[in-house]
TrEMBL record:
Protein name: Glutathione S-transferase
Residue ranges of domain GST C-terminal in the record: 88-217
GO molecular function per UniProt: transferase activity
The entry's keywords: Transferase
Organism in which the protein naturally occurs: Thalassospira profundimaris
Pfam name, any one: GST_N
Length: 234
């Protein structure tokens, strides 16, 4: 059994997609990050970094409980545990390269683009330009790579595709002001439509709306999501 700690955001969504694609037995445990539940002593024992997603595998080696946090680590752990969605052995280098390209580039730059366009208390033109331009550059790299391809790695649907889907799904929010956010990236858009049509994606969307999470971006939410901004006021 996998206990899956989640909030309806990109990184948990990609793990949910793996769980739904494989049919692994799991228990979804909501963590309301706008209420600060990720900072509870109980959750910090699962992820000391205080973020979702995280999992507890109650059927780890020797029957032990195994905790895994960070979405890329979880995807690798579960793929190796099940032997699924790892692609061919000869494509291992490509798989790791694209998985970590997403983890170190697409993900964090998307997050910062969202923050400065939607959450920052005051507009910061430099920050907005910096992160939007970098996202466009990352999208360009992906668009070039996906020309004539259905998947990121070889001919197989892998955890790299799942990882990328989690963030490209949020392109309308990331690319604020663009009526068709992927219009300049047709190969990336075609890839997204291909992945997005999978039945498992629909089940992920149902999971992400199955719990009533806090939606207000009030002072409680800001302190919970951006605690370092308030460290000097503690």
């Amino acid at each position: 059994m996998i206990r899956f700690y989640f909030h309806p955001t990109p990184n948990p969504a990609k793990v949910a997609l793996f769980l739904e694609e494989t049919g692994l037995e799991y228990e979804a445990v909501p963590v309301d990050t706008k209420k600060g539940e990720q900072h509870s002593a109980e959750f910090l024992k699962i992820n000391p970094n205080g973020k979702v997603p995280a999992i507890i595998d109650t059927d780890g080696p020797g029957g032990t409980d195994v905790r895994v946090f960070d979405s890329s680590a979880i995807l690798l752990y579960l793929a190796e545990k099940t032997g699924k969605f790892l692609g061919k052995d000869e494509d291992r280098g490509e798989l790791l390269s694209w998985l970590f390209f997403i983890a170190s580039g697409v993900g964090p730059f998307s997050g910062q683009a969202v923050h400065f366009q939607h959450a920052a208390p005051q507009p910061n033109d430099y920050a907005i330009n910096r992160y939007r331009r970098e996202i466009e550059r990352h999208y360009g790299v992906l668009n070039t790579h996906l020309a004539g391809r259905d998947h990121l790695v070889g001919d197989d649907y892998t955890i790299a595709d799942m990882s990328l889907w989690g963030w490209i799904d949020r392109a309308p929010h990331i690319m604020k002001g663009e009526s068709i956010p992927l219009e300049s990236f047709p190969h990336l858009a075609r890839w997204f439509d291909f992945i997005n049509s999978r039945q498992a994606v629909e089940r992920v969307r149902n999971l992400m709306t199955s719990h009533s999470f806090k939606t207000e971006m009030d002072d409680v939410a800001k302190r919970a999501l951006f605690p370092s901004n308030f460290a000097s006021q503690a």
